[in-house]
Design brief:
Length: about 400
């Protein structure tokens, strides 16, 4: 594929040279575009040598004229000739320009003229990354379906430790390949997805929860992003890194999940309720730790709110997908939940087996659809199961 590699002015600009090399090794053609400030950190000649192409810069009288084309190059032509725009590192400044449509240099002008997929790998000081202005710009860019390779956490050039360093090149490459490989059949969708377990506190040190690992929900989030969807991921506590590009909302209890879901319902076109929500919680949360007393202990439980049921009543014309984790009678229970909770699809899985369902990397599901249709999806890695579920969503939309 033909990739524009935009390099902006940050200390991580030197890493973009290695990135260019890896892209070429993967069989891509790379057109490097350096901003004026990127040139302060790395010479165009480096990229010209690696890519075998003249580098586009914003400086007419570049120090290496033999290696550069000036910004008088037609940006429309460059936009049309390339399949993907990657910016690594992307400074807070270029993110702001992209988010708000400023076009005062070649890269920002090219961005406005470019209609293909965009991958952005931000790198900056941790305070700049955490600033509400940057976060708001990132949300705008995510909302346009761009893939954001979140910066990593570690030692930063400014001498502090925090989140802001350019993600590893392998993560950026993986994001590029994932974007190029997938059909963008979910580009019109904003998917509100819940994942993981909930935790219902008993006292300050204990809670009720379940064995959900979040792997199925996170696999769905990743697959949906790769297929072009905007994903709002409402997640219970899990030990997984959320997929790059997801808007992540972390919750603990069923009530918090409920509130986060309904606060984010408006933009959603599809809701996938993959989370294993606790059906019961302690009727009273004790403020002090329960001490053992030599006899048994009873805890009174009360029902939590049924989020899926409420969604069924309030979904409007959104597609609604529920999950059913069962130990017996999967087909019957899945069909019943489809009906009772007004879903468009129930993803049923039998739990309790050895290498499928909770905690496993594999799954085996039964899709229950309206009209008494059942589709069996045989055992496969959760990433593949995720794509089969999304295939059905695409069919439901057709
Ligand atoms: N769910 C929910 N809110 C709850 C409980 C469950 O939104 N308080 C959702 C889950 O996210 C899942 C679906 O309901 O999509 C199925 O959950 P499950 O607990 O298996 O089903 P229930 O309808 O609670 O039925 P039962 O307890 O009879 O299995």
């Amino acid at each position: 594929m033909r990739i524009v590699l935009g390099v902006t002015g940050g200390i991580a600009a030197y890493k973009a040279a290695e990135l260019a090399r890896s892209l070429i090794r993967n069989g891509h053609e790379v057109q490097a575009v350096l901003t004026r400030s990127a040139e302060e950190f790395i010479r165009p000649l480096t990229f010209a040598s690696l890519t075998g192409r003249k580098v586009i810069t914003d400086i007419f009288s570049s120090a290496s004229p033999e290696a550069t084309l000036s910004s008088s190059v037609e940006h429309i032509g460059v936009a049309q000739e390339h399949d993907l725009l990657l910016v690594a590192p992307a400074t807070a400044n270029i993110l702001a320009k992209f988010a708000h449509g400023l076009a005062d240099d070649f890269l920002s002008t090219l961005y406005l003229a470019f209609s293909g997929p965009v991958v952005l790998a931000p790198a900056m000081n941790d305070k700049m990354w955490a600033h509400p202005a940057t976060l708001a710009n990132i949300e705008i860019l995510r909302g346009r379906g761009h893939s954001i390779v979140d910066p990593g956490t570690g030692f930063l050039a400014c001498g502090t430790i925090g989140q802001g360093r350019l993600s590893e090149n392998e993560n950026i490459l993986a994001a590029v390949e994932a974007v190029l490989a997938q059909p963008k059949d979910l580009a019109q969708e904003t998917i509100l997805l819940t994942a993981g377990p909930t935790q219902e506190p008993i006292d300050p040190v204990r809670y009720l929860s379940n064995r959900s690992s979040g792997k199925m929900g996170y696999a769905l989030a990743q697959a949906a992003i790769t297929r072009g969807a905007r994903v709002i991921l409402v997640t219970g506590p899990v030990a997984l890194e959320p997929p790059t590009g997801a808007q992540v909302i972390r919750v603990k209890t069923a009530q918090e999940m409920h509130d986060a879901v309904f606060a984010n319902l408006e933009p959603a076109t599809t809701i996938i309720k993959c989370a294993a929500v606790a059906d019961y919680r302690p009727a009273a949360v004790l403020t002090e730790k329960i001490k053992k007393n030599g006899i048994g202990l009873s805890i009174e439980l009360e029902r939590t709110v049924d989020i899926l049921e409420e969604l069924g009543a309030r979904k409007g014309n959104r597609l609604l997908v529920g999950f059913a984790a069962e130990t017996t009678n999967l087909r019957d229970y899945a069909a019943r939940k489809l009906e009772n909770k007004h879903c468009d699809m129930i993803v049923g899985n039998l739990v309790g087996g050895l290498d499928s369902g909770f905690e496993s990397d594999n799954n085996e599901v039964l899709l229950a659809l309206r009209g008494g249709v059942f589709i069996e999806v045989p055992k496969a890695p959760k990433s593949q199961i995720a794509n089969r579920i999304l295939d059905q969503l695409v069919k439901l939309r057709a």
